[in-house]
Write a structure and sequence with these properties.
This protein has 265 residues and is an alpha/beta fold. It has two domains: 6-234, TIM Barrel (Alpha-Beta Barrel), CATH 3.20.20; 237-265, no CATH class. The chain is built from eleven helices and eight strands. The chain has an eight-stranded parallel beta barrel with strand order 1-2-3-4-5-6-7-8, surrounded by seven helices. The mean pLDDT is 97.
């Protein structure tokens, strides 16, 4: 598989070929996902939750996300790598947004950045795109706004918010975004938005009719039995398997069964 590009993603939408996207935060998993043929790897600010143990994405810094992106990019040869701009680095300061996006691309080798929001961040998106940096948008449930929302419930279920989302999606396309993540919105709304755009939509909890899908790697691999939202499908149950393996290791060490003669020099 050749290197994934924006042009290929646009062609995939046109031809009806679905786009597969997954988060990654380190070299080891990114290498495996790239070998598996994933189209896009997202170095998400969800690292704040799954890697650092925070309850929201808000604490992660630009330096933190750059570190994770550096690790991922070293492992990738085919997948496109998109990096989240963290909270506080683009919402109110266009110059900071541009300098932060430039830092990400220069210091990591990533292909694009992702920003949450619509009309409110139009100036930042415009500045980044004009600088030649590809931007992925993100509408619907935007986790960086959790203190405003107060809940992780489905967004845009009412007409007013749904109409704004549609308007914002068109605006993001006009500003030059090459794709848009749609998170936790009604499936019928995601259909309307996807049909209205020339650029791909990537759904998470937004139904099957988006142009692609994204999941957090820890959710797909079943690494947290206590996190079971409706939109997650667990393809493995690694929490149980890892705990079982470590328990076996502990027992073998304590019972002098590891290492054996063949495992010793």
């Amino acid at each position: 598989m050749a290197q994934m590009t924006i042009q290929k993603l646009l062609s995939m939408k046109t031809s009806g070929q679905k786009i597969a996207m997954l988060t990654a935060y380190d070299f080891s998993f990114a290498r495996l996902f790239d070998l598996a043929g994933i189209d896009i790897l997202l170095v998400g600010d969800s690292a704040s939750n799954v890697m650092a143990g925070n309850s929201t994405t808000l604490p992660i810094t630009l330096d933190h996300i750059i570190y994770h992106a550096q690790c991922v990019c070293k492992a990738v040869s085919k997948s496109m790598v998109v990096v989240d701009l963290p909270f506080g680095y683009y919402q109110s300061n266009t110059s900071l947004a541009l300098s932060s996006a430039i830092r990400i691309l220069k210091e990591t080798g990533a292909n694009a950045v992702k920003l949450e929001g619509g009309e409110e961040i139009a100036d930042s998106i415009c500045a980044i795109v004009k600088a030649g940096i590809p931007v992925m948008g993100h509408l619907g449930l935007t986790p960086q706004s959790i203190n405003q929302f107060g809940t992780f419930a489905v967004r845009a279920t009412e007409n007013v918010e749904a109409a704004k989302l549609k308007k914002d999606a068109i605006l993001l396309q006009e500003l030059g975004c090459f794709s848009i993540v749609l998170e936790k919105i009604p499936a019928n709304l995601a259909v309307d938005v996807s049909k209205s755009l020339l650029i791909p939509t990537i759904g998470i909890g937004a139904g099957v009719d988006c142009d692609g899908q994204v999941l957090v790697m820890h959710d797909l691999l079943g690494m947290n039995n206590n996190f079971n939202p409706k939109f997650v499908r667990k393809y493995l149950q690694l929490e149980n398997q890892i705990i079982s393996a470590v328990k076996c290791y502990i027992n073998d060490v304590k019972e002098l069964e590891f290492p054996n003669k063949n495992e010793s020099y």
